[in-house]
Amino acid sequence: MSPSAVYQHPRYYAIGYQWNTEAECDFIEACLKAHGPPGATRLLDIGCGSGRHMSILAARGYRMAGIDLSPEMVAYVNEAAAREHLDISASVGDLRRLALAGTYDAAFCFMDTFRFLLTNDAIVSHLRAVAGHLAPGGLYLTDFWVPSRWELIGNEIHQWEQTEGDTTVRVFYLQHPESIDPVAQTFDDELVFEVQEGGTTREIRGGPTRTRLILPQEFGALVESSGVFTLLGRYGDFDLARPFSRDSLSWRMVSVLKRR
Ligand SMILES: C[S@@+](CC[C@H](N)C(=O)[O-])C[C@H]1O[C@@H](n2cnc3c(N)ncnc32)[C@H](O)[C@@H]1O
Questions:
Q1: Structural contact between residues 91 and 24, judged by C-beta atoms closer than 8 angstroms
Q2: CA atoms of 88 and 18, how far apart (whole Å)
Q3: How many CB atoms within 10 Å of residue 173?
Q4: If you measure from the C-alpha of residue 48 to the centroid of ligand 1, how many angstroms do you get, rounded to a whole number?
Q5: Among 4, 17, 68, which is best to mutate for testing ligand 1, by the most ligand atoms less than 8 A from CB?
Q6: Which residues pair with 204 in a beta bridge?
Q7: Ligand 1 pocket, 209 CB below 6 A?
Q8: Which atom of ligand 1 lies nearest, measured to the CA of 108?
Q9: b or e along 1-28 (b: 16 or more beta carbons within 10 Å of the residue's beta carbon)?
Q10: CA–CA separation, 189 vs 205, rounded Å?
Q11: Are 131 and 228 in contact (CB under 8 A)?
């Protein structure tokens, strides 16, 4: 199944997803301070999208590398980095078959990108590949959807709107319940962008994308069975003071892994 067509439109993605990015970068820095290797400067963004985290972190002094399957996203990131003289290098890559150079103090994979790993084998292989590119004690942070209620499995819908200049992007995230495979724990989800610009409105439908349901306990077991990471903590938001629990359950679970 092809990746969502919305990823061919990095500028609209950058506008639509700009919310909360500073707070997510603050969280990365708080994790590095609390748990990372001393003097951490080299960071890897897996599935970097439009580079919304990388540009903020590079401006804060980190050396950023990113990979993404979408050539349009990668070109957008590299053009912005050159324009703004930021230490960012993005390249086309697939998180299911990581082929990277270099060693990093920490890596992160945010906003559901991790759920493109569809099987337990794919998740464990990915974790081992990431660990192979981390310095001793390096961190790997993940952030992906989990259902806050059972009946939301395959039924989640979110929409929000962001404006920059005279462009407004309304983002619709939806899951297709008819596509659920309860054995494989996979289903199709979809992103739709409604873009208002220059007095016109256009709709960009991403098309269905196969994704995996990964439950909290299962994730812990997969991390353990990878043999390369210790799960330091899970959070109900980008906040180290808010452990993931029944009370803090939100639609995103943020996990902090440390390389053994
Ligand atoms: C929801 S976006 C998240 C982007 C970014 N992490 C963020 O937080 O804004 C998912 C990104 O993953 C990329 N992607 C999809 N499949 C991928 C794969 N197999 N390997 C690497 N990147 C992939 C898409 O092109 C897209 O940029």
A1: no
A2: 18
A3: 17
A4: 6
A5: 68
A6: 193
A7: no
A8: 6
A9: eeebbbbebbbbbbbbbeeebeebbebb
A10: 11
A11: yes
55 lines ligand 1 (CB under 6 A): no
Q: What token pair was written down for 127?
A: 């974790």
* Residue extents of the structural domains in the chain: 5-147+213-259, 150-211
Cβ burial of 59 (10 Å; 0-12, 13-18, 19+) is: middle
d(C-alpha 13, C-alpha 34), whole Å: 31
Regarding the beta carbon of 118 and ligand 1, being less than 6 Å apart is answered no
Q: Which amino acid is at 151?
A: E
* CATH number for the domain whose boundaries are 5-147+213-259: 3.40.50.150
Q: What is the Cα–Cα distance from 244 to 237, expressed in whole angstroms?
A: 8
Q: Tens of pLDDT along the chain (260 residues)?
A: 678 999 999 999 999 999 999 999 999 999 999 999 999 999 999 999 999 999 999 999 999 999 999 999 999 999 999 999 999 999 999 999 999 899 999 999 999 999 999 999 999 999 999 999 999 999 999 999 999 888 889 999 999 999 999 999 999 999 999 999 999 999 999 999 999 999 999 999 999 999 999 999 999 999 999 999 999 999 998 999 999 988 767 778 999 999 99
Q: Which two tokens stand for residue 212?
A: 């995996």
Among protein residues, the one with the nearest Cα to ligand 1's atom 16 is: 69
Residue 116 corresponds to which tokens in the numbers above? 């493109």
Amino acid at 193: F
CA-to-CA distance for 239 and 237, rounded, in angstroms? Answer: 5
Length of the chain: 260
